[in-house]
Amino acid sequence: MVLEYLTAPLWSPYLAGVGVGVMAVLSFLLADRPLGCSTAFVKTSGMVEVAVRGEGVKEHPYYRKYVPQVDGSWMIVVGIVIGAFLSAMLSGVFALAWVPPLWGETFGYDPVVRVLVALAGGFLLGFGARWAGGCTSGHGISGTLQLSVNSIIAAAFFFIGGIATAMAIYGVPF
Amino acid sequence: MLTALHKNARAQLLIGLLIGIGFGFFLQKGGVTSYDVIVGQLLLQDFTVVKLMLSAVIVGMIGFYFLKGKEMALIHCKNVTLGSVVIGGLIFGAGFAVLGYCPGTVAGAVGQGWLDALVGGVLGMVVGAGAFARLYPRLVGGILARGEFDIRTIPEVLRVNEWVVVAVFVVLMLAVLYLLEVLGL
Questions:
Q1: How far is B141 from chain A (nearest CA, A)?
Q2: What Pfam families does the annotation carry (chain A) (predicted)?
Q3: Are residues B170 and B140 in the same domain?
Q4: How far apart are the first and last CA of chain A?
Q5: The domain containing residue B9 runs over which residues?
Q6: Is residue A64 exposed (0-12), middle (13-18) or buried (19+ Cβ within 10 Å)?
């Protein structure tokens, strides 16, 4: 029974969502911190900068706020990679691939094109997440569940920007 | 409050890792570590992302306010600042659609084997976040502080018992999920 669940390729999004909700609550209880992902990326950029340009980088105002170091919030992202890998291995869906099906059908299967566009998208995502002070998990789930007005507005604009851009790329589907 | 645990840096590394493993496991099992599912949501054709997020918020909201009532959890909210969340939200949204992953699901996509998420997404995000850090001193007193209001949470604004607001939100979110099922979305 348990094994059947662990090896199922896909769960109901409701069941998976309940699991995510429990993780968000555990983060408040055990770490006194909202479950979020985007600070790990700015900490990484800080750590790279420190490695290249020296310790002085830590005096920069943003890196005084988000200290470039390996801490609990950074380990979250390492954990996500491991957790998704375990899940994919258990269900036998782990596979190395460059081009997602929907992208390939529309724009072709050249990995270079896909990676260049992903780089641009990643840049906007990392930049926008720090500008907004959080991402789909920090604002969208952890902020919203605290009934934070700021986070609810942020989540709405994540989707407004996302829907408008997706429809600009793929066309309005109806 | 488990204050001693919160201050134990070594324990926090392990807790972060374990919570992340659970988070990544559920994201992958829920299907949201796929580009097609995320873009399908943004094209309003596949509602997996909304279903997963709303279920997480329902469970999380009840759990969090229960812990808060027991003085086991604290509110971590900032004031409303429109210059930050509206503009940042729109930039994030554009990246969300162009990349087809968000900061959590991009890590999950890497774990599942998507190399566009690793070579493009993660690298782009680190560079983008670093670029924001560089610009931050010029933005902090200006646009990022525009439209600030002394508003944190809905129960604080309405000055009502927080469980009333939680109950209303849970019912509304369940109604949205029910509607999605009825419409077959």
A1: 12
A2: Sulf_transp
A3: no
A4: 41
A5: 1-30
A6: exposed
Structural domain contains residue B111: yes
Q: Are B139 and B103 part of one and the same domain? A: yes
Q: What is the ipTM of this complex?
A: 0.97
Q: In which band, very low, low, confident or very high, does the pLDDT at A127 lie, cut at 50, 70 and 90?
A: very high
Model confidence over B19-77: pLDDT tens digits?
999 999 999 999 999 999 999 999 999 999 999 999 999 999 999 999 999 999 999 99
Residues of chain A with C-beta less than 8 angstroms from the C-beta of B138? none
Closest-CA residue of B relative to A162 is: B93
DSSP element (H, E) containing B72:
none
Long-range contacts of A149-153 (CB under 8 A, 24+ apart): A149/B80, A149/B151, A149/B152, A149/B153, A149/B154, A149/B157, A150/B77, A150/B78, A150/B79, A150/B80, A150/B81, A150/B84, A150/B85, A150/B151, A150/B152, A151/B77, A151/B85, A153/B80, A153/B82, A153/B85, A153/B86, A153/B89
In this complex, do B89 and A27 lie within 8 Å of one another by their Cβ atoms?
no
Model-level pTM? 0.97
B62 Cβ neighbours under 8 A, 6+ residues apart: B166, B170
* A20/B114 touch (CB, cutoff 8 Å), yes or no: no
Same domain, B97 and B113: yes
- Best of B3, B21, B170 to disrupt the A interface (most A CBs within 10 Å) is B21
Residue at B158 is within a domain:
no
